[in-house]
Amino acid sequence: xxxxxxxxxxxxxxxxxxxxxxxxxxxxxxxxxxxxxxxxxxxxxxxxxxxxxxxxxxxxxxxxxxxxxxxxxxxxxxxxxxxxxxxxxxxxxxxxxxxxxxxxxxxxxxxxxxxxxxxxxxxxxxxxxxxxxxxxxxxxxxxxxxxxxxxxxxxxxxxxxxxxxxxxxxxxxxxxxxxxxxxxxxxxxxxxxxxxxxxxxxxxxxxxxxxxxxxxxxxxxxxxxxxxxxxxxxxxxxxxxxxxxxxxxxxxxxxxxxxxxxxxxxxxxxxxxxxxxxxxxxxxxxxxxxxxxxxxxxxxxxxxxxxxxxxxxxxxxxxxxxxxxxxxxxxxxxxxxxxxxxxxxxxxxxxxxxxxxxxxxxxxxxxxxxxxxxxxxxxxxxxxxxxxxxxxxxxxxxxxxxxxxxxxxxxxxxxxxxxx
Length: 420
Prior knowledge:
Blueprint: H1 2-21, E1 25-31, H2 37-53, E2 57-63, H3 66-79, E3 85-89, H4 93-98, E4 102-103, E5 120-123, E6 126-131, E7 133-134, E8 137-142, H5 143-148, H6 162-175, E9 180-183, H7 191-204, H8 224-238, H9 249-254, E10 261-267, H10 271-277, E11 281-284, E12 295-297, E13 300-305, H11 311-321, H12 324-334, E14 337-338, H13 341-344, H14 357-366, E15 367-369, H15 376-391, H16 396-413
Parallel strand pairs: 1-2, 1-3, 9-10, 12-15
Antiparallel strand pairs: 3-13, 4-13, 5-6, 6-13, 7-14, 8-10, 8-11
Helix pairs in contact: 2-12, 7-8, 7-15, 15-16
């Protein structure tokens, strides 16, 4: 009987060890796409595939509306309740890393060597996040409009100069065929203003902040180049070349398609819809205002919270989710730029010769990340207001000087955003 008890105990112990060895640990992930049925379907499929592919980890998804997502993350961080895996808008990542919300990815950067630069979230020399896609902005035009107005078709190798771009807008206005020469998307008073319009300032030779030190906006946002940008920017609205801040959102959504605008400064996420309704649409590169043509870079990315007790499992999921087949699936479904050239070849629109392959090339050639600094979350808001105020007629120099004061005060208040 004693022998039986020992044997039975050994069996029970062995069974317990076996169960422990095969226990599945749940990893939490937060995503910004609640309400987006297409995105939700794909992210859920990736999670289901990952969970079925192994028995160590089970990923559990919680989705939030995009407009409230960042606030939810901040509140959770303060309460010490962050999930294992977060997704985040690329330019926000440095602030979250500096604030201690994130830990560097325990994945060698070389693993993502073939990814577009804009998809890599690098701060303080470390990789904190990686994206499944990027986005790009182009100048939408009709081939027929270019021909009618006698305009050269710009290329990546030879984009329009400032003079050529200004001439194109004036030619469109003079034709009297359009309500406005160009739609800039002024109705979208959000991160769009910085993402879409900061590149114009940069192409003039200005900037949002000194990118060498990140300790001041002086000279970058109010220097001669920035003032030249501000005067040009204001002229677009003063001369009625573009609708201003009171633009009807519906006109921004469909104005180019309906023929109200000769050109539209717009993202690749609207390209598929436009192609379906405008059979001769052309996607043109950004103009060169003197210091090189630029467009924005860095879209939503995955990272691991600093409080995660299972960074190895979170890293396994991120590596799984960034397979080419999923990059291609997202691209086919929502029209964004796949993160790798090999994934692009698996898509309908971004493969060589595809209708949207121009956007992949634009992202490679012209994309520039917004300032990679924790202070960007404030700097972006300041720029958004300045761009709107100048468009509405505010004094250019005074507005830019005041913006510099606000940004510099924030940097000083946060001790230069030094690494904690």
